[in-house]
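Saturday, quiet lab. Running sequence design on the structure tokens for the scaffold JK sent over.
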């Protein structure tokens, strides 16, 4: 595959970066955290007006008809800003409904302010755990073992804690059947690609922040970046980011082309956990500043931890890779 973005994808990346630079600045993120709202409505409206929340919907439903690679392009920029919000859940749910839903179902999701997706293991009585923005969503896509279902907002919800402070819940809900088991499995693969893309952006943002810090922070009369031990550690962070990106883009491209993507995505999911470990290195290189919640690195750390938990952690992914071998 060609890992270079085409013109449309580059324009989409630049658009997302521009919107997020204006609407997800350090000051805005701090204000949002102090306010306690489930998401930043101004940021959400700006993304919507730019067409970034509907890009995966078909054109007849007001979208751009784009696919997994374009979804990954946008979510990587979201991660690079460590911007909170239901962007990941929205893009995965709209892409899956665009692929498998009827025109009426597509319109229903398109008209919802918030839509989300549940891919966690179903336990009993239509009970789903860890559903992001479940209580704010008007439409919930359920990827069950036996098929794909579309449901309204939850009948019952129990709030859960997340490392980023974003809302999630265990919900009890039933939905109308949309498609079969393979569609549900493909939706889970889309979800894995989305998480990996956002994690790749988180690591890229943390790497940029750390590189700038060690370049300008002096110790014993020299910049930290001049010390060999420091350069080796920041190189390890760079390698972790590249490994994640290669697997993620390969998986997203294969999903877009209708090719088997399970192995690529399992490797990408494993490297999401490795990216979280790399955040420890970024924190270490910042010294005490890395623990200061008024400095933006803590936000990247929290997002990396959250995204790792969404996929089950490194051991689960190694088991998955072994099963696929």
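Result came back. Writing it out in full:
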């Amino acid at each position: 595959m060609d890992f270079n973005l085409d013109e449309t994808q580059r324009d989409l990346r630049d658009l997302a970066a521009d919107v997020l630079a204006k609407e997800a600045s350090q000051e805005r993120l701090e204000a949002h955290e102090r306010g306690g709202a489930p998401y930043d409505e101004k940021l959400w409206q700006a993304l919507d007006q730019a067409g970034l929340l509907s890009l995966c919907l078909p054109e007849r439903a007001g979208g751009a008809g784009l696919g997994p690679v374009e979804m990954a392009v946008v979510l990587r920029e979201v991660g690079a800003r460590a911007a909170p919000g239901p962007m990941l859940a929205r893009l995965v749910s709209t892409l899956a409904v665009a692929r498998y839903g009827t025109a009426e179902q597509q319109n229903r999701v398109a008209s919802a302010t918030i839509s989300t997706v549940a891919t966690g293991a179903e336990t009993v009585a239509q009970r789903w755990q860890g559903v992001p923005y479940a209580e704010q969503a008007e439409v919930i896509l359920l990827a069950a073992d036996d098929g794909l279902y579309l449901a309204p907002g939850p009948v019952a919800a129990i709030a859960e804690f997340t490392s980023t402070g974003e809302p999630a819940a265990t919900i009890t809900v039933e939905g109308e059947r949309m498609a079969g088991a393979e569609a549900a499995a493909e939706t889970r693969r889309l979800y894995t690609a989305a998480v990996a893309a956002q994690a790749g952006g988180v690591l890229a943002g943390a790497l940029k922040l750390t590189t700038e810090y060690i370049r300008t922070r002096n110790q014993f009369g020299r910049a930290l970046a001049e010390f060999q031990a420091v350069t080796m550690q920041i190189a390890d962070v760079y390698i972790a980011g590249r490994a994640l990106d290669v697997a993620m883009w390969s998986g997203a491209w294969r999903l877009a082309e209708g090719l088997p993507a399970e192995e690529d995505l399992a490797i990408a999911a494993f490297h999401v956990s490795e990216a979280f470990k790399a955040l420890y290195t970024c924190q270490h290189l910042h010294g005490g500043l890395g623990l200061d919640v008024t400095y933006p690195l803590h936000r990247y750390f929290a997002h990396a931890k959250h995204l790792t938990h969404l996929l089950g952690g490194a051991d689960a992914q190694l088991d998955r890779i072994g099963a696929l071998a």
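Notes for JK: The mean pLDDT is 94. The radius of gyration is 19 Å. Ask whether to fix the surface positions before the next round.
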